[in-house]
Amino acid sequence: SVWPVHRVSPGTVVFHDWRGERQNPGLGLVPAAVLMARVVSLPAPGRVATLDCGSKSLAAEAGDPAAYVLGRPGWTAMGCSEEHLPCSIDNGWYVDAAGAPPAPKRGDVMFLVPEHICPTVNLAEKA
C-alpha cells in the first residue's frame, strides 16, 4: 500500500502560516500566531504604507512577500529591512462600506500572517 505524502511541518500544524495555507488550502486551519505591527509612515499615501516590523521580528528567509496583512488583500508586502516592512497598496481590492478604499493612517494596527511561521516564532522571547 502507498502512504499519502504529508506536506505539513509540525510547527505549521500548530501555528499555521501563509505558505501552509497556499500548499494545503483544504485543511481548514486558521493562523494561531500573527504578528502585530503599526503603520509608521506613508511614503506614497494611498500607494505605499510602511509597517514597524522587519527581519528582526518577521522571518524573511522564505523570500518576498514575507507575510500578508490580514483584512487587506490589496496590500502586498515588499522587501523588508531589519525594522520596517513597506507594503504596496492596490486599492482596487478592498473598499469600505461607502465604497471607498480605506486609507491607512500612521498608528493604524495591522496583523500579519508570516510566510514561514517557525523561524518567526523563534525570533520572539514570548507571545
Task: Supply Rg.
Answer: 16 Å
Low-confidence stretches: none
- How much beta, percentage-wise? 15-25%
Subunit arrangement of the protein: single chain
What is the terminal-to-terminal distance?
43 Å
Number of strands: 6
Mean residue pLDDT:
82
What is the strand arrangement across the widest sheet? 3-6-1-2-5-4
SSE string, helix = H, strand = E? HHEEEEEEH
- Main beta sheet: 6 strands, antiparallel
- Counting DSSP H or I runs of 4 or more residues, the number of helices is 3
Report the helical percentage.
10-25%
Structural class: alpha+beta
Shape: globular
Question: Which terms would index this structure?
Answer:
single chain; 127 residues; alpha+beta; six-stranded antiparallel β-sheet; 3 helices; globular
Plain-language structure description:
The protein has 127 residues and is an alpha+beta fold. It is built from three helices and six strands. A six-stranded antiparallel sheet has the order 3-6-1-2-5-4, with no helix packed on it. It is globular, with a radius of gyration of 16 Å. The model has no long low-confidence stretch (mean pLDDT 82).
